[in-house]
Amino acid sequence: MTSDQYQATFKDLVSKGFRLRQVSGYGVGNQDLYAAIWEKSGGPTWEAHHRMTSDQYQGQFDQLVDQGYRLVWVSGYGVGTAAYYAALWQSEAMSDADLSLIDSRLGAYVQQQSIPGLSFAVTKGERLVFAKGYGYADKSLKQPVTPDSIFRIASISKPVTAVAVMELVEAGKLHLDDTVFGSGAILGSTYGTKPYAANVKQITVRHLASHTSGWSNDGGDPMFMNPSMTQAQLIGWVLDNRPLKNDPGKAYEYLNFGFCVLGRVIEKVSGKGYEDFVKQAVLSRCGISRMQIGAETQAAKAPHEVTYYGSSPYSLLTHRMDAHGGWIATPIDLLRLMVRVDGFTAKADILSPVDEASMDTGSSVKPGYALGWIIEPTDRAHNGAMDGTMGFLVRRNDGISYAVLVNTRPAGDSSAWGLKGVIDGFIGSVSSWPGYDLF
Q1: pLDDT tens for residues 292-309?
Q2: Considering only CA atoms, which of 279, 258, 306, 3 is closest in space to residue 160?
Q3: Can you give the residue ranges of every domain in the chain?
Q4: Residue 413: which H helix or E strand, with range?
Q5: Distances in Å between the alpha carbon of 285 and those of 178, 288, 398?
Q6: What are phi and psi of 6, to 5 degrees?
Q7: Superfamily (CATH H level) for 94-439
Q8: Is the dihedral of CA 233, 236, 242, 246 positive or negative?
Q9: CB 152 within 8 A of CB 328
Q10: pTM flag (> 0.90)
Q11: pLDDT per residue as tens digits for the range 59-73
């Protein structure tokens, strides 16, 4: 059969209840031909692809293995000077019912919210047990999302920064109650041109990480203002022009600007650039090598990074947003970090139990927000959302953790809480997760 004949026969026989058992590809001149055997029988879910290049075959292999499939047949063949592959996989690690449950719930969300692409990964007992992409990384190219696809993670960057702060605390180079501005403080009088108010000189590292610094979003978050300013100029402008609304520690107000300042604290104390320090002190210790601060243009995006869909996602100043919203990652990357700071014991954490407990403790004015983490009765998590992207990183108390990222910010679920609700609604109903570890 030619490729078209094989595909037509495939669709016809599968619709009649047949399963592909073997397929062999071969070349005659510059044409690829196929011989195949189908059998009318039941069995686990299966998937087959043909005329794949080496890269396409590897991509399918990686994605299907992450979903619990096993390769049962592969045929390699040459057509002219090109190499191609035809292969067959069968699901053996998860039940058809569990796979259908995950696909149906996430598929319905993708359709309802008009999501171009979504990537989802799960750990159970600190083992990576499932990862899958849905939809398109790039709609115009019809490029599918895979577990290898990289996304902007927006405010999920805040837990990354919080862990970096705690690394400095653990090393004895920083204390959470150290003051940040003024004589003898971490940043001294580096920023701004006016004398600091007394309450500004009371701001501590803990206040910045828990959104209790006293600065307000009234008039807008400074991080999305004055786009021509560098980080240093912006911090100086805020110190000179935005007096505190509340005394430090007296009120909670979510503010990206506070984490921008934390990034500069990390730089001052470590003597390294923020991104370099986080990579060396946190990410490399978790086996993460591809996370980085994202590019600001589509042309400069990283290999395997998705395209973002929104009103103007490529106008965001990701490098200026580094410590509060600049990182890019895969869901698997995020879970590599999570299993090393989750307080569970199957894998050694990179922070001590004492410092993890400090990181996970909310303020007196907002017990539900700790240092870079949202604390709820059933989980510890953080969401991220900005034009063109959205997601959640969640560590549940039942031993399951998950990460999910999408390449748009839907109007119907602009902060990803609906997406979290969908996943929490089905994840406890999966009857059995695989016993292996895909990390």
Answers
A1: 999 999 999 999 999 999
A2: 279
A3: 3-91, 94-439
A4: none
A5: 26, 7, 25
A6: -65, -45
A7: DD-peptidase/beta-lactamase superfamily (3.40.710.10)
A8: positive
A9: yes
A10: yes
A11: 899 999 999 999 999
